[in-house]
Specification:
Number of strands: 10
Helix content: 40-55%
Strand content: 15-25%
Distance between the termini: 57 Å
Oligomer: single chain
Shape: globular
Largest sheet: 6 strands, parallel
Number of helices: 11
Length: 332
């Protein structure tokens, strides 16, 4: 499949629409993670719909000293990958097309949620991101827009903007795509030297350690629920050697787990990576409520996000995993 390259909103609006339009927004340098987004969009749009991929390196979301000038620009390869993955069109506007009067005087504010974690590390980043997403949603006029879950805070803010400002579009999050060694796919991975890449693996390894600790904890919680409630049941289970195992599970589940244990397991991996050569320099490790990206407490139940950001050499990387707390109920 060949994707049509469009440079102006007028050209995009001139296209006939017969079904649902699904949009995938990117800054280019497309890789398999983007291809997964495009393939998912193709399934959602269906054979009668249309998939549009936007390619625009947005200057508003790059702060002082960040990599706007060296951000990879590979439009020809992007158009080829987009078409191969199922896109009908690639909309690659110029800066003047998106911001015809120069930098916009009126912008969207990400609010308090945009000042945490990534927002604290990159002041103004989310204001610029939401402003260009809002403009691209207006320019492309989609029925559905898809974003990767690797940028979890970005996805949460887009969902909040669409809800708070009554955008008539469905937002779909697509799970993170990883390389075989676990590193989350990112356009910035190409900046890593072989030694830096080995260190960078600590980001995903830390998340997996936290996830595994959480899974073990939940399994112990499930086992602890089987602790006998009556003396007769306890005696009966004791005869088959079950009461000690249940008691051990109960003790561990009630004293050694929860969000604190998840953070500790992930932190251990990151602390070890800080001693590598080259070292990993941690920006943050956080276990947050995706509704507002505030840290969760030990009594939290529901969906959470374990997120990490760090620098290896001159490259800054982010990653995250979703976790769910309390689905198996409290240990009895």
């Amino acid at each position: 499949m060949t994707a049509t390259l469009l440079r102006t909103a007028a050209d995009l609006h001139a296209r006939a629409r017969t079904g649902r339009r699904a949009v995938v927004m990117t800054m280019g340098a497309l890789h398999e993670g983007h291809a997964t987004l495009i393939r998912t969009a193709r399934k959602i749009a269906g054979p009668d719909g249309e998939v549009v991929v936007t390619v625009f390196v947005n200057p508003l979301q790059f702060g002082a000293g960040e990599d706007l000038d060296r951000y990879p620009r590979t439009l020809d390869a992007d158009v080829e990958l987009a078409g191969r993955s199922g896109a009908d069109a690639v909309f690659a506007p110029s800066v003047d097309e998106v911001y015809p009067g120069g930098e916009p005087q009126v912008r969207i504010s990400a609010g308090p949620m945009g000042e945490r974690l990534e927002g604290a590390a990159r002041p103004g980043h989310f204001d610029g991101m939401l402003t260009v997403v809002a403009k691209l949603l207006h320019l492309t006029r989609p029925d559905v827009a898809l974003y990767g879950q690797k940028d979890a805070q970005q996805l949460a803010l887009i969902r909040r903007m669409v809800r708070d400002l009554n955008f008539g579009v469905e937002i779909v999050g697509v799970p993170t795509v990883r390389e075989e060694d676990g590193l989350a796919l990112s356009s910035r991975n190409r900046y890593l030297s072989p030694a830096e890449r080995r260190t960078a693996l600590a980001l995903s390894q830390a998340l997996f350690a936290g996830r595994d600790r959480h899974a073990a904890q939940e399994a112990l919680r499930a086992r602890a629920r089987e602790v006998p409630a009556t003396r007769a049941r306890a005696e009966a289970l004791s005869l088959i050697g079950e009461s000690r195992a249940a008691a051990d599970a109960h003790a561990v589940a009630t004293t050694a787990g929860g969000p604190a244990a998840v953070r500790a397991a992930a932190r251990l991996v990151l602390d070890e990576a800080a001693r590598l050569d080259p070292p990993l320099r941690l920006d943050y490790l956080a276990l947050v409520d995706p509704a507002d990206f505030t840290e969760i407490g030990d009594d939290f139940t529901g969906e959470a996000v374990l997120a990490v950001a760090a620098r290896v050499g001159t490259t800054r990387l982010i990653d995250n995993l979703p976790l769910t707390f309390g689905t198996l109920g409290d240990a009895s």
